[in-house]
Amino acid sequence: MKALLNKLTAALPPGTVAVAGGTVVLGAASYVHLGVAGHSLSTEALANVSVLWTIVMSIGIGVFFPIEQELTRIVSARAVLGHGAAPVLRRATLLTGGILGATLLVLGLAAGPIADLLFHGDRALVAALGGAFTGMAVCYLTRGVLAGLGRFGAYGTQLAVDGGLRILLAFGCALFGLHSALAFSLILGVAPVVATLVTLPALLRAVGPGEPIAWRELSGGLGLLVCATLLSQLVVNAAVMSTKLLAPSDSALIASLLSALVLARVPLFVFGSLQASLLSGLTAAFTAGDRAAFWAMLRRIALVVGALGLLGGVPATALGPWLIEVLFGIEDPVLGHFDFFLLSAGTVAYMFAMVLGQALMVFKRHNLQLLCWALGTAVLLGTTLIPGEVAVRVIVAYALGSTATVLAMLAALRLSFPGAAAAAGEAPRQMTEAGAPGVGAVGR
């Protein structure tokens, strides 16, 4: 067993283990948060929290997670070339603030219609949604720079503090009798802000002076990446939102679907500990011109993703209907074992798509990544609109949309490789001229 664990650890990108602990805490916090809410709230209030949680984990991630990804890629490449990250952090802070301001403005102007459509007219939940977006903006900004600099200890600490606070606050709401959707929703904004403040000193110590960064370099691919990430989040979270629109009065189905997705996506929470270190490692290898290291890392991660899918999918398929009743307080589960199998299969395909998408990012093929997610979204929407039972349609749509995206990305990666290989071959000459560290920086 020890030898197997050593082999698995060796297959992971550098920094994964340091992030894994924080990812486990943050992943567990999602279960605890929703589980305590399920046992504390009425069916309607739980449905409101479920919808808000889904919006945060789809639109919020779609808008703000690309900032972390681009910063990881840019800062990691600059680190290989010996450039500090302080100029990047300054401009990225301004850019993130602008994006957050625009998002909050839209929420403020459309607060009434949003509340009526999604939260049974409760405008306070729209304000809580804005708080959650604020928390995501500050945490993804700082995590991107930390990952690019290879400061995965501080990165993992921020995840752990965020998750730990969510758990404590959720139990606190239950113990103090705060049986309202608003109380449980505010947790999504408070926890990440506090976690960011805890790790801010480590970030400021790590950044150093360096060459200025142009606005175009920082934001050039961000728009395409935001669109691609929004579509990816639509694919992975559409089941709950589609059910809310197609069967708005079926609160039991909405709550069951969210609980089932949380269980089926256990491998995705674990996969989160790979993403930051994977993108950093792939970028460093590509910038240093180490093609062998790049493709070896990609192959190893594909094997790890397959193993995660089996380890998470088999228990979810076998025990899912029972678990959502026990863990989330769903008294009358409406989903069966085959539903959990399809949800697990969609999650495995989604993880493969995320891995291939990061490889396309390193090649700066943001346009192809967006095109692939657009194709997957089209398949998802087409399947959802087919007549039939709502639960079956939205679950099958998730599996087919994720699979279509993977197949499209495999084709896109094959098309991208010749140009990417040529670019990688030029990197060592550029670094030599700049007097920067060589291929050894990949092991940072």
Strand-residue proportion:
under 5%
Residue windows where pLDDT falls under 50 for at least 5 positions: 419-444
- Rg, rounded, reads 21 Å
Question: Helix/strand-derived class?
Answer: mainly alpha
N-to-C span: 28 Å
Helix content: over 70%
Q: Please state the overall shape, judged from the principal axes of the Cα atoms.
A: globular
| Overall mean confidence score, pLDDT | 81
Order of helices and strands: HHHHHHHHHHHHHHHH
Overall number of strands = 0
What can be said about the biggest beta sheet?
Answer: none
Tally of alpha and pi helices = 16
Task: List the topology elements.
Blueprint: H1 2-11, H2 16-40, H3 43-80, H4 86-109, H5 111-118, H6 123-148, H7 152-175, H8 181-206, H9 215-219, H10 222-246, H11 251-264, H12 266-287, H13 291-328, H14 337-362, H15 366-384, H16 390-434
Description:
With 444 residues, the chain is mainly alpha-helical. It has helices at 2-11, 16-40, 43-80, 86-109, 111-118, 123-148, 152-175, 181-206, 215-219, 222-246, 251-264, 266-287, 291-328, 337-362, 366-384, 390-434. The radius of gyration is 21 Å and the shape is globular. The relative contact order is 0.13. The model is unreliable at 419-444 (pLDDT under 50).
How would you concisely characterize the structure shown here?
The chain has 444 residues and is an all-alpha fold. Helix content is 84%, strand content 0%.
Structure keywords:
84% helix; 0% strand; 444 residues; disordered C terminus; mainly alpha
